[in-house]
Amino acid sequence: MMFQLAVNFTIAFLWILFQNSLTMADFIVGYAIGMVVVLVLVHFQDGYFYMHRVWSLIKLMGVFLRELTLANIDVMKILLRKNMNISPGIIAVPTELKTNSEKALFALLMTLTPGTLSIEFSKDGTQIFIHALQAENPEDVVAQVKRTFEASILEVTRRHV
Known about the structure:
By secondary structure, the chain is mainly alpha-helical. It has 2 domains: 2-44, no CATH class; 51-158, Alpha-Beta Plaits. It has helices at 2-19, 24-44, 51-80, 100-112, 138-158, and strands at 89-94, 116-121, 127-132. It has a 3-stranded antiparallel β-sheet, covered by helices on one side.
């Protein structure tokens, strides 16, 4: 991945030199040309194109923003009701995350989303305990968390390894 990025930046720099102008537009054009060259090179090697991981990271940010917005709306609905009909609880969510960075990102995303709070990982690291504001159906909460955050994190960190 670093080699691909270095080749891409080198081609962009050379493009700027050949154009004899130091503008952002020329850099972007050179970078785009570099991406095409790297894509062709990757086609002949046994590897993956580094922009796939960048795209996965952008999708993860989109998933987080969507979940953040939906969770804020849900919490606002709960707070605006006359009677707060909530069923909080602590749920053990089994996880496929292995590295500390994956686990830290997962815990961060869970804690930043209103209505959920990550408490801790189990000793063996196979489960994370979360507090959910609406935990009446723990299976639904687990399925939703695994479908959104965990799947997106795994796509960023391991999809192309």
